[in-house]
Amino acid sequence: MIKLNRRQALIMGGAAAATALAAPAIAQGTKIKVGALRFTSHSGSFVAKDRGYFADAGLDVELEFFQAAQPMAVAIASGDIDYAVTAISGGLISLAQKGAIKVIGGALIEEEGIDGQQILASDAAFQAGVTDPSKLGGKSYGVTQTGSSFHYVGSRIAQAEGIEMSFKPLQKVGAVVGAIKSGQIDAWNIVPHIAKPLAGSGAVHIIGAVQDYLPGYQTTTVFTSAKNAADQRDKTEAFLAGFSKGVADYNSTMIDQSGGDAGIDEMVKLIHQYVYADRPFEKAKPSIVNGTMRINEGAKLNMASVKDQLEWFQSGGYVDASVTIDDLVDTSYVEIVG
């Protein structure tokens, strides 16, 4: 009987969970560029690259990092990168309408029972009485760009609470962090690996959770150029196969904790190469662990959430009213739910 060490068992388990997306035969070493943010939520790509799952699928992957969603969408449309994982934005939808981009799967999702994106208030706003989202009426809410995913989430919170807020575009996540810490904006929403350390420092306060307003929110999606989706099916399926094995490892280790503390440590060390790499491991580890959220197995896509996002962008005039869900999504690659 062959005995496996913990790492081998985790890898084999992750591979088994992703067999529904077995890699097609493509030329070995096919070079592609994959867009990402330095967020824990992009760990599917990090794991697939470092554990050889992309290579097993025949792909030689170079990761290219961005600071916001919309520039990544532009890079896909221009052919500067081949595949990416990020939130749906107005820019992405408009490029899809022009036939440049297709969403082909889902990634990060809000799941009940797992800490997801947190709603934050600046210390100044909190001390002035903004202790829950219902008290955000008349306050300023940070976003990267007008028509970004942050704008969508903030607007849905305001709608649910029956209040109005002003939205302040600051272009980059780092700029929003600085603005809420200094009190230049009153509120924001962000993934837990950023939200919890900020709250722990006392500079901001967690006043709510996004999943209370948007259960099942398809926070990020997997997308590519319309050309890749239509004409490079083998390459696209190979990317999804490798990515899905990385996701399976990540979920198994960080959410199901199948490898125990040792497995978590090994996974965090892998992610630390890309997230908070400028910090010592022991300081980075709590933030990375705090960022644990479910990434959809097999890149399945919550279509109900995607449709709600599209409708919001249309209702606000951020994208053309004539855009259809078929313009945005190629449903032929992964399981569609919702």
Account of the protein in words:
This is NitT/TauT family transport system substrate-binding protein. One of its GO terms (biological process) is alkanesulfonate transmembrane transport. With 338 residues, the protein is of the alpha/beta class. 44% of the residues lie in helices and 17% in strands. It folds into two domains: 224 residues, D-Maltodextrin-Binding Protein, domain 2; 95 residues, 3-Layer(aba) Sandwich (D-Maltodextrin-Binding Protein, domain 2), CATH 3.40.190. The longest helix is centred in the last third of the chain and has 23 residues. The chain starts with 5 loop residues before the first helix and ends with a strand. 51% of the residues are buried.
Number of strands: 12
Strand order of the largest sheet: 2-1-3-10-4
The name of the CATH topology of the largest domain is D-Maltodextrin-Binding Protein, domain 2
CATH domain class of the largest domain: Alpha Beta
End-to-end Cα distance: 43 Å
Poorly predicted regions are 1-20
